[in-house]
UniProtKB/TrEMBL annotation:
Presence of the UniProt keyword Manganese in the record: no
PANTHER family xrefs: HISTIDINE KINASE, SENSOR HISTIDINE KINASE YKOH
Domain Histidine kinase: 245-455
Enzyme Commission number, as recorded: 2.7.13.3
Keywords linked to the UniProt accession: Kinase, Membrane, Phosphoprotein, Transferase, Transmembrane, Transmembrane helix
UniProt lineage: Bacteria, Pseudomonadati, Pseudomonadota, Alphaproteobacteria, Sphingomonadales
Record-linked Pfam families: HATPase_c
Residue intervals passing through the bilayer: 21-39, 161-183
Lineage top rank: taxon: Bacteria
Enzyme class (EC, first level): transferase
Organism in which the protein naturally occurs: Novosphingobium clariflavum
GO molecular function annotations of the record: kinase activity
Localization per Swiss-Prot or TrEMBL: Membrane
Catalyses which reaction(s): ATP + protein L-histidine = ADP + protein N-phospho-L-histidine
Protein name in the entry: histidine kinase
Length: 455
């Protein structure tokens, strides 16, 4: 996998904390808008009620004037009220008319569509806007209409809207600031746990234990994570110690047995006995190699996903060095090795394990390619490491199990070895967050090592 930062950047759309803050901002803005709509409706309704009461009160006063002073007195009072109002922004309008609609007094020119007999009320159109009016019948041939404008309501609504917009913005900004601060603290605490899982070393565990103060659920999760990682570390250490001890206990008697066989050969036994001793020594070496491979596989699998101990490795230089080494031996065995190595391909890994990965793939290719055949080693950025040959290839029946331990080909001539080479390659690849696959090919076998696909 490419050399990169160990802590992946937190994407906004993937962060639960960022989404929580965003939803809090949206909800705060929505609540502010709903409160404004409710307030605006209340202002409109209250204003309408006040306007209706003002019209009714004014109309009642006019009816009393007519009842006490007659039509002439009513016309004079209407003229006085119109004259006392400012000419710009006049609020009250009057119309005293006969049953035919002819104007007798007032500033309105024509009778609107309101029925005076039932004291109908409603909005009417004016040259400068609209007003609320009520009509009433004063006598068989006389009717009166009183209308009031409301120029102050729009100004009041604008002021209230400005207050809500300003308050809503301040509230939204406060929610955003507080939410982002809290989200940053929570994300930092969660990232401490994730960092410990990515790199479960002593330093990360110490930071994890230091941040666990039993204040809330995250601290409890932090403490449990620290204890679990420490337990896993102890189990892994015990497992490695056990396997190392087991390997030592098995390898030592085998080597003692090999030394005895060497002494037996030094005694110049008969030819048949010497041949049997030599075969026994080969079997001992085969068992030792198989034991070492099994231990390497177990160690790689146990450390899968563990970034501790990885360092930048120049994979291009490593592949080129191994390729040149194998090219000399390939020429001697009658094979051809082609190299296509891209420069400056870097990975984070263990150089010794990556060396074993490449050498196992090359050994596997040369093992099955007949004399005169070709093996190709390619490396491209990504990284993408490919080892292909033009040998007999892998039978369809063996493709599914070829990376299993002790899996050997079913075709004649493929039974040599312990069947651990490709299993070790897969374990090493997974240790480095890579995956090895057998590519479809019309001829020979083609193995590719590339970063694991995101699932």
């Amino acid at each position: 996998m490419p050399h990169q930062s160990t802590a992946p950047p937190t994407r906004f759309h993937r962060s639960i904390f960022a989404r929580t803050v965003l939803w809090a901002i949206i909800i705060a803005a929505a609540i502010t808008a709903c409160l404004w709509l409710l307030t605006d409706a209340t202002i409109r309704n209250t204003n309408q009620i006040a306007l209706e009461r003002a019209v009714d009160l004014d109309l009642a006063g006019m009816v009393d004037i007519h009842a006490s002073g007659g039509r002439e007195e009513l016309a004079r009072r209407i003229a006085d009220r119109i004259a006392l109002q400012p000419r710009d922004g006049q609020l009250a309008h009057y119309l005293l008319a006969d049953t035919a609609g002819r104007r007798l007094a007032g500033d309105l020119r024509q009778w609107p569509g309101l029925h005076a007999g039932v004291s109908e009320s409603g909005p009417i159109a004016l040259p400068g806007g609209s007003a609320f009016a009520r009509a009433t019948q004063l006598g068989p041939d006389l009717r009166l209409l009183v209308a009031h404008e409301d120029h102050d309501i729009d100004a009041l609504r604008r002021q209230v809207a400005l207050v809500y917009v300003t308050g809503g913005l301040l509230a939204t900004l406060a929610v955003a600031l507080i939410g982002m601060t809290a989200a940053h603290r929570l994300r930092t605490r969660i990232e401490r746990i994730n960092a410990a899982f990515r790199h479960p070393d002593e330093e990360a565990l110490a930071r994890l234990e230091k941040g666990s103060l039993d204040r809330d659920e995250i601290d409890e999760l932090t403490r449990h994570s620290s204890e679990a990682l420490a337990r896993l570390g102890r189990l892994a250490g015990a497992q490695r110690e056990t396997t190392d001890q087991l390997a030592h206990e098995m390898r030592t008697p085998l080597m003692h047995l090999d030394n005895r066989l060497v002494k037996a050969l030094a005694a110049a036994p008969e030819a048949e006995t010497a041949a049997r001793i030599a075969d026994a020594r080969l079997e001992i070496r085969h068992i030792v190699r198989m034991l070492e491979s099994l231990l390497d596989i177990a160690a790689s699998q146990a450390r899968r996903g563990d970034r501790h101990g990885l360092a930048p490795v120049d994979l291009s230089a490593l592949a080129l060095r191994l390729g040149e080494l194998y090219a000399d031996s390939a020429e001697e065995s009658g094979h051809t090795l082609k190299l296509a190595i891209a420069p400056d391909v870097m990975v984070e890994g263990e150089e010794m394990q990556l060396t074993r990965l490449i050498t196992n793939l090359l050994d596997n290719a040369f093992k099955f390619v007949p004399v005169g055949g070709t093996v190709e080693l390619r490396l491209a950025p990504g990284p993408s490491l490919t080892v292909c040959d033009d040998g007999p290839g892998v039978p369809l029946a063996d493709r599914e199990k070829i990376f299993d331990k002790f899996a050997r080909g079913s075709e004649p001539g493929t039974q040599d070895g312990a069947g651990l080479g490709l299993a070790l390659c897969r374990a090493i690849a997974e240790r480095h967050q890579l995956e090895i696959t057998l590519l479809p090919s019309t001829r020979g076998a083609c193995f590719k090592v590339a970063p694991q696909a995101r699932r």
